[in-house]
């Protein structure tokens, strides 16, 4: 069985969803009640891949909402409790979705292996970042030509280049895609210098300068709420892949030959019959999902029960090849820009 750990995008939406699901006692509770609410296994699903393999899955809502991020202990407890529930339910491989993987990594939850009388077995969990990185790279390769951008001569800015996903994306674009030039953006200089030396290439630039030069921008950092982007300073056409969470680039810059695509999203080849992706505001919630969630499904389809994506900067090209091939084999496709024809329909 595969598992997905997720959460609602806001406290308000979480309460509405709880009401809809019949969890009235939580739905009516105030923020403090939500802070102490346990995780809930809200849905079971069955999925059959085009390869004819059927798997079972479960969605666990961690009862975390982004408003809790400032409450360090609450956020930590929410993630660990959801992981404990997944393990107790006997789920083989569970993806940490949304903020839960960021909390796991940034709050160093590896140190907190024992939850009450359960010792968490790390091999049952994956961040899903390998599949996310592969999907983002394929989105660049598929969509840049649609806009007339020749990747062999294009400048591609990676915002969040030193992160787990960003560094994997840089490795792939350099070695496999062969882009014109990589522009490396992050706040801390030393990791950027280390990445540049690992890649044997790429130019380190401040955000504003990189955005002004880039034909393609890959955003794989959580965007500060206050960040303003000057639409006029961007190249046109420009392909922007919004791989961060939450996804809010389109509201800031889309339009006038700036094309924003939701990054790290895949579509399954048939309706799944679940309701969980409606929470994540997917355009086609019956088929579309975060690539990190899909990674847990892929690992279950492949009977590959291991923490495939784990820790920071461990994603290799070989692992991306492996999960990418499984993604295609089991009926997933990457989200692409709508053509004029589709947009008009
Ligand atoms: P990491 O924490 O490993 O990396 C974050 C990167 O962003 C680092 O390079 C960091 O470097 C950089 N960064 C952070 N803030 C800024 C800033 N203000 N300006 C420039 N760079 C910045 O994260 P992951 O690689 O695990 O995840 C990256 C993003 O992808 C997250 O937003 C996450 O939510 C999202 N994600 C999306 C998924 C999907 O849509 N399917 C699945 C999984 C993750 P520095 O600190 O030096 O600035």
From the structure above, extract its key features.
345 residues, alpha/beta, Rossmann fold, 6-stranded parallel β-sheet, 5-stranded mixed β-sheet, 16 strands, 38% helix, globular, binds NADPH dihydro-nicotinamide-adenine-dinucleotide phosphate
Descriptive report:
By secondary structure, this protein is α/β, with parallel strands linked by helices. The chain has 2 domains: 125 residues, no CATH class; 136 residues, Rossmann fold (3-Layer(aba) Sandwich). The chain has 14 helices and 16 strands. The chain has a 6-stranded parallel sheet, sandwiched between helices. Strands 2-3-1-4-7 form a 5-stranded mixed sheet, sandwiched between helices. It has a 3-stranded antiparallel sheet with strand order 15-14-16. Strand 5 and strand 6 form a beta hairpin. Helix 4 crosses helix 5 and helix 6 packs across helix 13. The mean pLDDT is 93. The structure holds NADPH dihydro-nicotinamide-adenine-dinucleotide phosphate (NDP). NADPH dihydro-nicotinamide-adenine-dinucleotide phosphate binds next to helix 5, helix 6, helix 7 and helix 12.
């Amino acid at each position: 069985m595969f598992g997905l750990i997720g959460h609602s995008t806001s406290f308000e939406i979480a309460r509405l969803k709880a009401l809809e699901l019949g969890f009235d006692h939580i739905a009516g509770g105030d923020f403090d009640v939500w802070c102490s609410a346990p995780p809930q296994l809200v849905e079971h699903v069955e999925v059959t891949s085009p390869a004819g393999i059927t798997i079972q899955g479960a969605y666990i809502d961690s009862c975390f909402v982004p408003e809790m991020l400032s409450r360090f202990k609450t956020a930590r407890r929410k993630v660990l409790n959801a992981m404990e529930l997944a393990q107790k339910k006997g789920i083989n491989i569970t993806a940490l979705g949304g903020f839960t993987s960021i909390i796991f990594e940034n709050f160093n939850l590896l140190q907190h292996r024992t939850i009450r009388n359960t010792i968490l077995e790390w091999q049952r969990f994956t961040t899903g970042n390998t599949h996310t990185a592969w999907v983002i790279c394929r989105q660049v390769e598929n969509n840049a030509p649609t806009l007339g951008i020749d990747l062999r001569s294009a400048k591609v800015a990676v915002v969040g280049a030193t992160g787990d996903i960003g560094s994997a994306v840089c490795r792939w674009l350099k070695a496999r895609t062969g882009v014109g030039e990589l522009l490396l953006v992050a706040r801390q200089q030393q990791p950027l210098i280390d990445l540049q030396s690992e890649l044997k290439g790429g130019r380190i630039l401040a955000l504003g300068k990189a955005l002004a030069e880039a034909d393609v921008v890959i955003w794989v950092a959580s965007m500060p709420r206050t960040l303003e982007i000057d639409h006029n300073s961007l190249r046109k056409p420009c392909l922007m892949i919004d791989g961060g969470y939450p996804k809010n680039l389109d509201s800031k810059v889309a339009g006038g030959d700036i094309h924003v695509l939701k990054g790290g999203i895949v579509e399954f080849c048939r309706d799944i019959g679940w309701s969980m992706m409606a929470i994540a505001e997917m355009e086609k919630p019956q088929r579309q999902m975060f690539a990190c969630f899909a990674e847990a499904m892929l690992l279950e389809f492949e009977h590959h029960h291991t923490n495939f994506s784990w820790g920071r900067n461990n994603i290799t090209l070989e692992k991306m090849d492996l999960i990418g091939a499984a993604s295609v084999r089991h009926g997933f496709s990457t989200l692409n820009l709508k053509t004029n024809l589709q947009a008009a329909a």
